[in-house]
Amino acid sequence: MQEKFVLKTLKKVAAIGTGVAMAGATLTGALAADLGDYPSPYVVDGTYDDSTALVVGDLATAADTLGMVDIATNLQYESRTAVESTSSSSVTVEGGKTEQVPLATYLTASSFFDSSLQDDDVDNFFDGEISFQGTNYDTAEELQFVNGGPVIVTSINGSEDDYNTGVYLEIPGKDRIKFMYKFDETINLSDASTTQPLELDFLGDNLKITSIDTSGSKFTAYVGEEHYLMVDESVTVDVEGVDKTVTLTEAGSSSVVVSVDGETEIINSAATQNVNGVEITVDSTFSRTERTESSAVLIIGAESSESYESGDAYIGEDTSDPNWVWTISGLQTQGTAQTLGIENEFYWTNPNDNPATAGECIDLPNDYVQVCFDSLTVSDDDYMDLKFERYDELDPAGFIYTSLDAIHVESSASEGLELSFANFGSTGFITLNQTVDKRTSEIWLYFNNSVSTLNNSVTRARSNIIDVFYKDGSKTKYWGALTANETHEIFRVNYENTKDTNIVVTTNGSDSNNHLGLLVDVVGDSTTELASGRDDMTLYWTTVAATGISSLGVSADSEEASEVLHGTTTYGTKDEDHRTIYGIKLLTPKSNGQDDKVLMQVPNDQVKANIVVQGTSTTVSSGATSSIVAEITPATKLASEVSTASDYQLILVGGPCANDLVEDLFDVTCDGWSFEEGEALVKLADNGDNVAMLIAGTTADDTRRASRAVANYADYTLTGTEVLVTGTSLEDIEVGAVPEEEAEEEAEEEAEEEAEAEEEAEEEAEAEAEE
Fold it and tell me: Which end of the chain has a smaller Cβ tally under 10 Å, C or N?
C-alpha cells in the first residue's frame, strides 16, 4: 500500500488544477506565448500578476468551482521568488525547522530534532485560544516523532542492496509520526452539541464536533460543504461524481423543506436526512415574516455528518487504504489529557515502499506540515576516487628487489593521502626513513615475511613487515616499515574536510604469514555524528613468502565474499554500488574484486541529510536553489461580476452553458459545442492587452480533469494555443492535439464570423454615406 509522498516545496509539485481558454478566438499581438509557457502570464518568474481573475459561470457546477480552487492553489505554489544560497550543502529555513542528520540516524537521536515540535518551530502551528460555549481555552497543535520517528538509511545500514548509493528516509513502522491537538486548560468536550459545537481548525480542515461518544474514543462532526441559502435559492454540489441541485423551498423556525432534483423532504433543525442520494444536515434555520427573506445553513454532501473513532481514516483519505488515521482517546474526560490527532498508517522499510529520497517529503493531510528530505550536505561532485589494487611492478630506485608484488593505493586528489610522522605505528617494530609528514596521491604497501636485507641501509630484524613507499613527484620513495600482525596506522585520507582521524587505514592486528588485513577505520568529527567502530571496512589480501601480495582475497582474479567486509558483513560478491554511514561509496565490489582491486569514492566531508520540517508559510533556501513563498490573494469572480473583461488576465473554468463570458470571449455557444463526453478543450485567446484562458469540458468531470492536467503541466505536453484533454477519471488523463476536423470547423466558423463582421461594417458605412 505504500504510497510515495512527493515533495511539494523543494521540487516541482504535482500541483492541483489550473485554468484555460476555449475555442474560437484568433490570437494576435497581445498573446505572444502559448500553453507551453504556463504559468505565464499569470505568474512570471515567480511574480504573480495582480490583474489575474479566476472566473466561473453563474451556473457553475461544484466541479467548476473545484477546478478554480485547484488553479488558485497552483498559482500560489508558482508564486515564489528564487534566492541565491551560500553553499551547495547549506539549507536556510524561516518559519520551520531544519537539522543536518547523520546517515543511519533517527531524527530525534542525540536531539537532532525534538520529539515534539510546536508553533515556535513551525510558524503555522496554532497556539492560542478557542471559544467553546462562552469560555476561552488555550490550545495548541503539535507534531510528534515517536520512537525516534523516521530514520536516514543507506544500503549498508538499511541492509537493502537495491538502495545502491542512494540515501532514503524510512519510516520503520506505523504510529511513528503524530499530529496532535492539545488542550492546555481543563475543558469538558462532552458538552459539544449540534446547537453548541466545538469548532476547531485542524490540519487546515474546519471541524465542528457535535457530540462525543461515552467511550471517549469517538466523535461526530459536520464534514459536508456548508451552504447558506435563501428560500428558493439553489446550489449544485458534486456527490461522488454526480451533480445534484439542492433547493431550499421553505425555512421555518424549527424545520426546512428541501428539494434535491425534484425530490422533496422536510428536515428538522439539527437533524440529518438523505434526500435523493444527498445527505443534508440542517445546521440552523432563520424564519422571517416575508417568506423570501427566510434562510437556512445546510451541511450538504455524500455524508454531511460523520463519526470518527480511533483508527478510522482521516478526512479525505482512502477509507480502505489510508495513509493517516485518527488517534482518539479520553475525550469524555474533563481535563487536559485528551488525545485528539492523527498518526501514520503507512510505513517505508524497503525499496518497494518507495521511501522519500533527497527532494521529497512526507506530506501530512492538506500539506499542512511536511517532513522533507531536502538534500544531502555533500554534492555528487565533491568526491575523491580512492583505489586499492594488487600491483606487480613496484620497482623503487636503490633497492635490491625489483618488480615487487604490492598493494597500490591511489587517490584522484593530488594530496589525498597523508603519511603522518607522529602517528605512523605506535608499538612493535617500526622504522622511519622520514622526519616530517608527507602528502601524496600514491602509496605502495609491500609485504615480505622473510628476514632479509631490503637495501644497503635497511636491514630487517624480523618477519611480517610491511614496507611503505610513496610517490614524490616522479620518484617512488621509501617511507618506513611496521609490523603487520599488530595494529598500526599506515596512512590517512586527506580530502578537504575529510582529514585527520576521519578515515585512517591501519593493519588490523590479525595478520599471519600468508594473510594481510587492512582496516579502513572511519569516524565522524564527534561520537554523536559517527562513533568509532560503526562504519569500519576491512580489506583482506593474500601474501606469498618472499614475493609479496598475491591477490585480493584467497585467489587472484576472482571475487570472494570475505575479501571486503563492512563490520562483519561480507560485500565482496555484491554487484551493486553501496554507501557507508560516513557517506563513502563502495563501487561494484564483485566486478572489481575479479580484478583484485577495491574502488571507493570518498566525500569531502561526512555526508548528512538536510531534513526540514516546514509548514504552509515556511521559507526554504536549499543548496543552489531556494524559494520564498509569496502571499497572494487570487481574485475569484462569477461571470456576471466581470464588467470589463479586458481589464483582467482571465482564467475561465467551465463551458458556454454555464459561463456567459465564454461566448463573449471565444464565440462559442452552448448549442455549438462539438466535443464528446470524455473530452475537454484547453485554449488561449487574446483579451485586449491581456490573455484569456479557459478550461471547458463536455461534462463537469471533463472540465475538472482538464484543470488537473494543466495544473500538472510538467507531466503533460501543453503546447501551441489549444490542446484536447481526454480521459475517464482524474487519474486517467491524456493530452493531445485537437482533431483536424474540429479545428477546421472552428476555422470555418471564425472565417464566417469575420465575413459577417466585414459585411456589417460595409453596410454601416454605406448607410452613413447615404445619410
Answer: C
Integer Cα distance of 564 and 570 in angstroms? 6
The 3-state DSSP class for residue 143 equals strand
Please state the length of the chain. 771
Give the relative orientation of helices 700-711 and 62-78 as an angle to the nearest 10 degrees.
10
Whose cell is 454526480? That residue is 242
Coil vs helix vs strand at 682: strand
Cell matching residue 447: 609485504
Three-point CA angle 364, 365, 369, nearest 5°: 45
| The predicted structure's pLDDT at residue 461 | 47
d(CA 539, CA 545) in angstroms, rounded, equals 20
Question: What per-residue confidence (pLDDT) applies to 204?
Answer: 85
Residue-wise burial string across 669-707, b where 16 or more C-beta atoms lie within 10 A, e elsewhere: eeeebebeebbbbbbbbbbeebbbbbbbbbbbbbbbbbb
φ, ψ dihedrals at 305, nearest 5°: -130, 135
Give whole-number Cα distances, 640 to 24, 60, 121, 183, in Å.
21, 12, 45, 46
Residue found under cell 476555422? 747
Beta strand residue intervals within 488-596, DSSP E: 489-493, 503-507, 515-522, 537-544, 548-552, 564-566, 569-570, 578-579, 585-587
pTM more than 0.90: no
Given the DSSP bridges, would you call strands 242-251 and 255-260 parallel, antiparallel or unpaired? antiparallel
Task: Please give the single-letter amino acid code of residue 765.
Answer: A
* Residues of the chain below pLDDT 50: 1-31, 84-88, 451-453, 455-457, 461, 624-625
Q: Report DSSP state, residue 508.
A: -
Q: How far apart are CA 371 and CA 112, in angstroms?
A: 14
* Predicted pLDDT of residue 304: 86
**By C-alpha distance, which of 580, 562, 145, 532 is closest to 369?**
145
The pLDDT, as a whole number, for residue 84 is 46
Cell of 564: 571486503
For residue 16, the model assigns a pLDDT of 25
